[in-house]
Amino acid sequence: MVTKIDRLARSIIDxxxxxxxxxxxxxxxxxLKDNMEFHAERTPTACxxxxxxxxxxxxxxxxx
Length: 64
Known about the structure:
The protein is mainly α. It has one domain (5-61). The protein is built from three helices and two strands, in the order ααββα. A two-stranded antiparallel sheet has the order 1-2.
């Protein structure tokens, strides 16, 4: 569980790599504040990956 996307990674590349690596280890990722979950046992659709990247961009631009 992660509070917000920007707490897991500071760049889009890192965010994508971390979520991918965790899924490869059968670990699901849940972003509480962003209400998004990536299940390790399911292959993420293109839409889910796009949402992850878009939220990551928005969170990185927003002041903390």
